[in-house]
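Figure 3 (text version): structure tokens given as input.
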């Protein structure tokens, strides 16, 4: 099947042709052509149009029942998105007077191929199809990264996702231009990082960021972990450990039956749930793996010859907040990542108490809400990455942690589905029963009653009132 045939077989191409009455003056370009050439399904369509992209997008929206909106005024791009999110079409005005001029301004040769929407042979002036055959990622020209520094990040992401080798000339050019990457808007950097970390091979993607000299520029907090030595529970420095935690996180994702037991299906549903900034909870958890020890360089100390990182969870949460501000992340994503970092040690401190009494389970769930399940999975990956000679790195210690994590995951999923226990009496009712005013004392009593109810210590309204009286003394 030819490239033209593969594109013609796409329902999105058929939709665009109907909407644009054949498609004269429009070209399929970029990722859609690349995916078709690789034999992949075309679920997103990029159109380069000689006219007004708004007119094109609105016509496609009318035909396909989607929603059209301006995606970027700077790049003259409009997007049409399906109501159910199953497809999208981007329409961008030509960069230049002709399609050939447009292709010359694109980032990589594999994306600088265009096929007329109306049908015909591909335009491939820079040898992109041959580069795809050779599995090579090559910049269109020496100006590629200067034109748009975000392309530096995109090079790492595309090479990792598409299993390409970066052309030596492109590699040298990227290294020379690496400092420009910080100049890209924060939200655009986050978009590329989201796709890299959430992609098919985030470990190679991160290794390519290192190879291109981009890690110190876009993720200086991660770069700062290099060379920070740890105690006997760890066999790697903090940076090596962090990458190992991400690697173990990928293993956990791939074998949830082992790590989540009978609740594996529910955990799978949790990980694909949309969170914020076009990121799923699963992708956010991978970010959590990268960021959980970000506070260690600032808190490293030694006591009696033993390396300590006292407070690295709290300091780390603050550093994550600053990183998220720089990348212009949403409040929702920022809060999620900060909370993962803040609580990644909590379950480990409870292992010696296992099996946990219900009150301790409740304390953990209430403290880590709403990331109880997520952070529990993070602790699994963290513990699996400890292969030192210390007491917490033994096989027995690791298995004890995994056993507690499975039990806590089940409790966290129940809490997520059912919420906290329905109070046996309201705050105003309790205040009236005890003759106290609303305030901190009442709040503390209600929290105690919730914990007692979760633990099965009180089951009726009368028992709850009596418990509150006894607590007050």
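Below: residues designed for each position.
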């Amino acid at each position: 099947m030819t490239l033209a045939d593969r594109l013609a077989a796409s329902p999105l191409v058929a939709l665009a042709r109907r909407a644009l009455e054949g498609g004269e003056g429009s070209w399929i370009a970029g990722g859609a052509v690349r995916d078709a050439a690789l034999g992949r399904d075309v679920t997103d369509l990029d159109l380069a149009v000689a006219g007004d992209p708004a007119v094109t997008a609105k016509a496609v929206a009318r035909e396909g029942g989607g929603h059209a909106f301006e995606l970027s005024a700077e790049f003259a791009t409009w997007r049409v998105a399906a109501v159910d999110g199953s497809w999208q079409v981007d329409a961008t005005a030509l960069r230049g007077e002709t399609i050939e001029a447009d292709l010359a301004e694109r980032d990589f040769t594999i994306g600088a191929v265009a096929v007329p929407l109306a049908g015909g042979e591909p335009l491939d002036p820079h040898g992109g199809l041959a580069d795809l055959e050779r599995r090579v990622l090559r910049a269109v020209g020496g100006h590629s990264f200067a034109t748009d520094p975000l392309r530096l990040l995109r090079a790492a992401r595309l090479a990792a996702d598409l299993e390409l080798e970066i052309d030596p000339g492109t590699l040298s050019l990227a290294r020379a231009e690496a400092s420009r990457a910080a100049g890209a808007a924060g939200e655009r950097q986050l978009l590329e990082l989201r796709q890299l970390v959430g992609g098919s091979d985030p470990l190679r993607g991160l290794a390519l960021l290192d190879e291109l000299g981009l890690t110190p520029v876009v993720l200086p907090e991660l770069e700062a972990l290099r060379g920070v030595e740890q105690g006997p529970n760890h066999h790697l420095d903090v940076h090596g450990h962090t990458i190992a935690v991400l690697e173990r996180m990928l293993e956990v994702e791939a074998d949830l039956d082992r790590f989540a037991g009978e609740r594996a299906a529910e955990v799978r549903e949790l990980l694909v749930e949309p969170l914020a900034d076009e990121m799923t909870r699963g992708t956010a958890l991978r970010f959590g793996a990268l960021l959980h020890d970000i506070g260690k360089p600032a808190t490293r100390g030694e006591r009696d010859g033993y390396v300590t990182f006292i407070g690295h969870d709290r300091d780390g949460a603050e550093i994550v907040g600053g990183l998220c501000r720089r990348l212009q992340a949403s409040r929702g994503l920022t809060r999620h990542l900060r909370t993962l970092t803040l609580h990644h040690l909590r379950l480990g401190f409870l292992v010696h108490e296992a099996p946990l009494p219900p009150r301790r389970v409740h304390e953990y769930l209430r403290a880590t809400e709403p990331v109880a399940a997520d952070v529990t999975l993070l602790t699994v990956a963290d513990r699996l990455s400890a292969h030192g000679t210390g007491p917490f790195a033994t096989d027995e210690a690791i298995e004890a942690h995994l056993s507690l994590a499975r039990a806590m995951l089940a409790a966290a999923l129940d809490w997520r589905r059912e919420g906290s226990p329905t109070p046996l009496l309201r705050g105003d009712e309790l205040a009236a029963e005890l003759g106290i005013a609303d305030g901190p004392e009442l709040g503390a009593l209600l929290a105690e009653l919730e914990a007692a109810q979760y633990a099965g210590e009180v089951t009726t309204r009368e028992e709850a009132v009596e418990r509150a009286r006894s607590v007050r003394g």
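The longest helix spans residues 395-418.
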